User: Fold these one by one.
Assistant:
Number 1:
Amino acid sequence: MINGYSIYGLRLQANRPIPGLVACPKATPVDVQIWLGSAPPWVDARSAKQPAYISPYHNKQGTPILTVWKLNHLTEHYFWLCYSDGTKFVINGSGNRIWATWLPATSLEDTATYLLGPILGFVLRLRGITCLHASAVAIDGRAVILVGPAGAGKSTTAAALARLGYPILSDDIVALSEQKGAFLVQPAYPRLRLWPESAQILYGSKEALPSLTPTWNKCYLDLTADGYYFQNYPLALAAIYILRERTNDPQSPFIEGVWAHAGLIHLIGNTYVNYLLDKPQRAQEFEFLGRLAANVPVRQIYPHADPACLSELCQVIRDDFRKVASTIQFQVIDKE
């Protein structure tokens, strides 16, 4: 184990470099060990019983995109996550060991897209860390979360804010924790994943950004490039913005407040990788989100349907956030 990394508040060690991550020599003590290109010798399909989860989504051949098996070995239980392209992960129940294998038709880069998304998202959930399917941006030294259903424009809006010089904390997964009475957003890694259509809106061409992998349709924005910033330490969360359906209303983009109970419902609907949580884990999640909705302002945004209004949307978010933040007293958070 010679490759150390820090992501989502976890310190990783891997036997091979992980594409997309920046090495972190200080990533000790280790929270999660990762073996890329190998699996425990005892893992065998014949030892798997009834699947713990089968994805409702299928590939072109009719195979579920993901099937999860729960295995037992010695005194510990494990999860075996099998993707339809042949990529497989084994995760122990404590969420501190991961093994990954893939077929010759795919690559380490393809495997890393799973690892840095749903796999580490599931590891965070196993470790009791609540995650939202969202993007997080730093404005005036505080964290702002953008949530909404798939296709709502979370990553596109975050990328538009990044172009204006605002640092990005995280994309796709927002890992949350509590410290000194504040809710913290943990930094992810210095990339924003975007669809080619978003690259077209932001940069005028679907080919303006590099492909995530040769076999995936997404591209990425490198936050280590000149003019962009990655927020590499946690920030206190100051506001949550729910992206609603785009509208042609001449008043849009505009923002409205949300009552705490309605905000809680939205947050519950936007948690990340919750399909394998047991009852105690769901109860813990509900309690955490209840405190979050009661203590952090939740707002809803109605973007304009015209992509040309994206810059105006960023300005509306910034101005609204500054009004909201002026009414909140924040705890001082240690960068370490």
Number 2:
Amino acid sequence: MTDVLLSARDLERQYHMGEDLVRAVRGVSLDVASGDYVAIVGPSGCGKSTLLNLLGGIDRPDRGTVTIGGARVDQM
């Protein structure tokens, strides 16, 4: 069994762009095990950079949790 290094559960992030509400990340869950290689792909504007910012602790999710090595990122 492989140890989970990074875990995300039910991530959501939204923001306002003018009068519009943009739901950049909706309900993303994933596990990345130690030694895994991961690619996040998709068309322009689909939320790739927003997801990476959430996973890296640069931004906080509106909903959901991110853990790295078992520790919650929002509590670091």
Number 3:
Amino acid sequence: MLFRSGDDRVIDTPLAESGIIGTAIGMATYGLRPIAEIQFSDFIYPAYDQIVNELAKARYRSGGQFPAPMVIRTPFGGGIRGGHYHSQSPESVFAHQAGLYVVAPSNPYDAKGLLLQAIFGDDPVIFFEPKRVYRGPDHGTNWSAHPKGEVPDGDYRIPFGVADIARPRTGTGTPVTLVSYGAMVHTCAKAAELAAAEGIDVELIDLRTLVPLDVEALARSVRQTGRAVVANEAPRTCGFAAELSAVIQEQCFDWLAAPIARVTGWDTPFPYTLEGAYMPDPQRVLAALRAVANYR
């Protein structure tokens, strides 16, 4: 990239996250469209003040005079044997902050389309890239995810706030809606395959973006199935799965035939040697699908 674009456009910065983001904010307010990279989302916290108190509020505090067309790319999640400093999932921390778009693609096609949408928009975007999808080694575990897909050469953009039906229902069996994003979509897809053998008909929704959230897609699906399971890698308490559960309850209470189930990481630091036990695998998702489908 440096060779192709030159050092006036590609800047090799010191490892100072607050400085990286602060510099990029200044560039954005003066009309540029910077793309900042925090190499692991675990290290984004030194820049948290710059992101939530400056970047997220630039348009609001200036009365719309200073948009902030800026993208922060950062890998998140576990599955690469990176230990607790290279495996965290902080997406809900940023989804909580007004003024930020929060994106989490699950596959190569969506990643390009969503990234182009982010770059050419006029608001700040936290672009979470699931690291085990694009760089994780396969340790022989059934939660590894290495999807490949065709990516067009040209310019195409996927609008924010539009979820994808990663696996439609077949119409045969007990219907359940399964909701996730990022690398967990592939874990959920495997669980859906296992569930089909038990007569559970899963509709898998890939959110693509957390902010804005495609509430209509969630409500439409759960009103048809009457059952919902939500999954994320992050810890259970205040994770994004909790927000999804609340939204589904608000939108679909009268249609629910079973309690909403959450499948998440544990409320502990991310463990190195017990990574496989910490991260939700297809069997844990399957157990939730089974419990929801069999609830009476």
